[in-house]
Write a structure and sequence with these properties.
- 2 copies of one chain form a homodimer.
- By secondary structure, chain A is an alpha/beta fold.
- The first copy, chain A, has 2 domains: about 5-20 and about 290-400, Aspartate Aminotransferase, domain 1 (Alpha-Beta Complex); about 40-285, Type I PLP-dependent aspartate aminotransferase-like (Major domain) (Aspartate Aminotransferase, domain 2), CATH 3.40.640.10.
- Chain A contains 14 helices and 13 strands.
- In chain A, the strands form 3 sheets. In chain A, strands 2-9-8-7-6-3-4-5 form an 8-stranded mixed beta sheet, with helices on both faces.
- Chains A, B: Pfam families: Asp_aminotransf.
């Protein structure tokens, strides 16, 4: 089949966002069906129907701590979105300052963030909204280019942080190496209030039998004498229910105190009933890992289909490559220079909606125009097979057009 | 019984916060017990287990609109806390500016808010945290002193807003008159981005058979040519489950667009499953009003007990008065000048913990030291009867000490 034949199929497949498929959400059916049996009293006799417990239900904090390998006092269990926690941490830093620093809004020079690219568009959107200047950092096979990072943060006190998705990065699937993590934890920074914004979004989202471990960044920063450097974010949205889970913030006691101080002005507490339901449903880390195995069984064939189709249809295309992630929610497809936008446009004409080209870069500028983010989780396997074919045909057509 | 006898009873009663009692929370038992029967599909076939719907589930927005007497397009259904919405609206104004205005952080002069007093301590805490200068406004029987308000806002462009709890104000029970509402909606303001922060927290929280109606402030501002002036906040926390309900933001289309733009950076959407449960449980305004009748049946005897005890024990005390609210969650007790702090201290020694004196004022300064906020909702009726007695004895002792 060529591109024109494919386009005539009149498909409509949405591959724009990393959403779980309905079959994945069905795995947490018990969370909904058994909700009526959970009641309202926590293990400790806390009435989860009433106000309070700003940092979350104690047993939800304990679950988060077990999942993240930290102490419950270092973990806040919050609402339904870790993105909110990242946004609010940056807002608080802008408005009020981090421990040991001035409010960023009072900085003489515009504050800046390092952004490994390709990266998560919603991270970059927060920086852009807050007027935080974004500096793109090349992302290698083992994490951000640390020579570049170290030189930048050592020289410029206006650089206040770096976005890190240490395991199965969105959208490249990158796994940070131990050496990269050690260097991030121990590098000297000109800004005393420099922070690692550590989005551990895919900590349990393995696609292979090998369960790569997220690095213990809080421990690493403590060991290297920068105990307050890491703010760790995690979420159950892609474990149980997307937008209906529980989000966690984990860090040093000093940062948690800071968080509590500012959050106490904003709310009286999170929805403890949803936290209670989650604790009862997941129970512990082993329970979560069993659930993630079932996610893997549903997701793996979709990623395999993308890889097999690209291998069959694009292996001989010069300048084309793609990631074969061992976890997470995305595949990155690289076109020859200057063809990503055209490929997205051709795919759209053929009924396949992709994330806009450039979305994975600060200010949406992929200067070489080569990167496509592909989200194979939501559509059915049959649709993924079709879509991968359509994407490959669109890319080949884009290449042909230039000949 | 005198104060010393009372203190020897060794009681421990917490009257600090406006929390619903367990019996009130039991009224929404169905929301928990029947949660398993709600499923995950909305009326419109939306899978509430997945991401999206930034401004809330359509039927939750419709319920909010019915409750607030507005169109669903003017209502956002959000998370579990209206306080969060107020905080975020102020944060967004500070960081990004309101429609038609510069970011407040860039204002040459410190921005200011009018704060009718006594008022809600958490409103004032947000202003204090954000560095918004608070100007106390006397609160009369029919709302804020409008001659004062009009003169202030007309003269000073740095005054960006006023906190209003229009019905059964916290903590005075004040009901804003039609004339006050009309003047708030139509007064000229020097700041083009002036806003009424309209906390409609007690819209359905009647204590008498007369259901006072919250004024239609969005309609009133539209009529007077200031369609973007009001930001309305409401919450189901004191209707169903405290901290487990659904909060609403309502305003003009322009303000809702503004809200959506900034919230889209912060989150992918609210917990739609909790919104779905609430829609199914409450059904409509009539369903909510039936539920509120049952709240009233539980709350009214507690407020009556406070009023009866104060009447019996304090009617002859010179310079002492108290509010007899027709709705809401609080009673205000006024001591002779300079005795509020001492009364709180004496009550604490007698085992009754009250909100700190001054809490209802900006910067916690009640210059005359006369106001006590009493929250009779949470303790049992028997405890309320005892506590009211203890408070009255403490106040009489404070008066006696000064003789």
């Amino acid at each position: 089949m060529n591109y024109d034949d494919f386009a005539r199929l009149g498909l409509s497949i949405d591959m724009t966002r990393g959403k779980p498929a309905p079959e994945q959400l069905d795995l947490s059916r018990g969370l909904i069906d058994e909700a009526g049996t959970v009641g309202h009293l926590s293990r400790d006799g806390i009435d989860c129907r009433n106000y309070g417990h700003l940092l979350g239900l104690p047993e939800a904090r304990e679950l988060g701590a077990e999942l993240l390998g930290l102490s419950p006092s270092q973990v806040a269990a919050a609402g339904n979105s870790s993105l909110e926690l990242m946004h609010d941490a940056l807002s608080f830093a802008m408005l009020f300052g981090l421990p040991g620093g001035e409010p960023w809004r009072k900085s003489a020079k515009e504050v800046a963030f390092l952004c490994p690219v390709p990266g998560y568009d919603r991270h970059f959107a927060i920086c852009e909204a807050l007027g935080i200047r974004m500096i793109a950092v090349p992302l290698g096979d083992d994490g951000p280019d640390m020579d570049f990072v170290e030189a930048q943060v050592a020289a410029d006190p206006s650089i206040k942080g770096i976005w890190c998705t240490p395991l199965y990065s969105n959208p490249t699937g990158t796994i940070y190496s131990e050496d990269v993590v050690r260097r991030l934890a121990s590098m000297p920074t000109a800004a005393p209030d420099f922070r690692l914004f550590w989005d551990d979004a895919y900590r349990f989202h393995h696609l292979t039998e090998r369960r790569h471990a997220s690095p213990d960044i809080v421990g690493a920063t403590l060991k290297s004498g920068y105990p307050d450097r890491a703010l760790v974010f995690a979420s159950l949205s892609k474990v149980t229910l997307a937008g209906g889970g529980v989000a966690f913030l984990a860090s040093s006691p000093r940062n948690i105190d800071w968080w509590q101080r500012h959050v106490s002005v904003r709310t009286i507490g999170p929805d403890k009933l949803n936290q209670l339901r989650h604790v009862r449903f997941l129970r512990d880390r082993a329970g979560l890992e069993r659930l993630m195995e079932r996610h893997r069984a549903l997701l793996r064939p979709k990623f395999d289909a993308v890889a097999a189709t690209f291998e069959a249809m694009l292996a001989d295309a010069r300048g084309v490559s793609w990631s074969t992630p061992q976890g997470g929610y995305f595949v990155s497809l690289y076109t020859p220079d200057g063809l990503a936008k055209r490929t997205v446009a051709l795919a759209a004409e053929a009924g396949i909606v992709l994330t806009p080209a450039g979305a994975a870069f600060p200010y949406r500028i992929d200067s070489r125009d080569t990167h496509l983010r592909i989200a194979p989780s939501f559509p059915s396997l049959a649709d993924i097979e079709l879509a991968a074919k359509g994407i490959a045909l669109s890319l080949r057509r884009a290449i042909d057009e230039r000949k």
